[in-house]
Amino acid sequence: MTDRAQTATADLLDRRAFLNRLSLLLSGLIGLVLSVPILAYLLTPLLRRAPGVWLNIGTTDTFKVGETVQVAIEDPSPLPWAGETTRTAIWLRRDGQTDFTAFAVNCTHLACPVNWQAQAKIFLCPCHGGVFYGDGRVAAGPPPRPLPRYDVRVQGANVQVLTRRVPIGGD
Predict the structure, then answer these.
(1) What is the C-alpha to C-alpha distance for residues 166 and 171, in angstroms, rounded to an integer?
(2) Burial (CB count within 10 angstroms: exposed 0-12, middle 13-18, buried 19+), residue 158
């Protein structure tokens, strides 16, 4: 093979390698541009918090003064595919004729549901032994914070709770 032929072959390989890299780069850019709207559609609901909604949870006469009961509510999740996970509960205590306190059911340690022990007047987390006083403060165990509270109001004869995302972790 002559020197001229070898130079032409080397140029062809360089040109071929350049075109291969260019086509890979352009394919990657096209894939990136096409994936941005899809990722935005899938991830936006996860990043956007649902607005709080005042939710009727019962009439005042259904709750006895001094009693703490569990009430099932719907979590206002912005995820259209949330399904069954939108169902949650709160612990509701009637403190007076129009005074109510609502606690989240999830322990602040690892979000296990807490149980109300009426005789001892404590909330007990069965997962790791977390204990909360009746006012939600930490009494013992690993929970780092008190039980989260929900805002409660009485409108006419209805008790309403301001829903929000299930308070798990640092919420």
Answers:
(1) 8
(2) middle
